Amino acid sequence: MPNYSNPINYTAKLTPQLINLATEGSLDTSIFNGVSAQRTLNMIQTTDTQGHIKITCGVKDGNTFNNAVQSPYNDGWVTIIDTIWIYPVADLNPVLDSFRAASPAIIEEGNNIIFTNASHLYSFFEAVYNATTVSQPVGNVGFSLGVGTQLEDLGVTINLVLASGLKMITWRLVRQLTSQTDLPVGGDSPDGTIGFITIYCDWDQNGVQDPTNLNPATIGFPFGDPLRVSAKSVSI
Fold first, then answer.
1. What are the boundaries of each domain within the chain?
2. Tens of pLDDT along 149-184?
């Protein structure tokens, strides 16, 4: 698995030799020393526990161009509807180690964590939640975020997937930008917390995103997260 706590961001400039100058060169009005400011590629590097490097990248090449750097992920997220939970990286890693050694063990393939069945997946989810209830420094059970919390996207995704191939959960690594004391009804997560939020959930296992009014507790997952975030903007 990647080193989730330390993503490294790179920006690479694409030279004119990498584009079709005959048909598109006139559109690149910001070429300086052979580098186009309008064709900018963002790359995110993570390193797993074995030292293997993974780079995720994206670039936008449309009919018109501007000087905005393109990004391979959402610029950020905002919490909606009701309180949500954020799961700090420091709490996730020990639980991963425990489930790697357990029987049945989780299987890790890229950014997917694969579980034998839904019960196995939920036991992991609950273990991560329980870990946050211990580490929370201000006495609240877990790290909660009130509605309106702004979150910076850090470009790392984890999918919780069943052995059948069904994806039940997608987590995204974020940094908390909003102090909870600045919200009308704030949570208890400390300023600047870095952790995972749920950006996709399929607790009813029908292959699509659950409606926001579905309460996982009503179908046997009392600590499950409903969808409570919205992407602020998408660059590509």
1. 8-72, 77-234
2. 999 988 889 999 999 999 999 999 999 999 999 999
In the chain, the DSSP E strands lie at 8-13, 31-32, 35-36, 40-47, 53-58, 74-79, 84-85, 87-88, 107-109, 112-115, 144-145, 150-162, 167-176, 194-201, 229-234
For residue 1, the model assigns a pLDDT of 47
Round to the nearest angstrom and report the end-to-end CA distance of the chain.
25
Going by C-beta distance under 8 Å and a sequence separation of 6 or more, which residues neighbour residue 75? Answer: 153, 232, 233, 234, 235
Contacts 24+ apart (CB under 8 A), 29-32: 29/65, 30/67
Task: Please state, in angstroms and as integers, the Cα–Cα distance from residue 166 to each residue in 26, 35, 44, 108, 204, following that order.
Answer: 47, 44, 27, 15, 11
Residue 74 vs residues 16, 155, 158: alpha-carbon distances, Å: 27, 8, 15
Say which residue, 29 or 230, is predicted with more confidence: 230
Question: pLDDT by residue (tens digit) across 45-102?
Answer: 554 445 555 555 544 444 444 444 444 445 689 999 999 999 998 899 999 999 999 9
Compute the radius of gyration of the chain from its Cα atoms.
Answer: 20
Q: Which residue has the tokens 């997917």?
A: 112
pTM score: 0.69
Which residue from 155, 159, 148 is spatially nearest to 125, judged by alpha carbons? 159
H or E segment and range at residue 83: none
Residue whose token pair is 């559109």:
27
User: Bridge partners of 115?
Assistant: 162
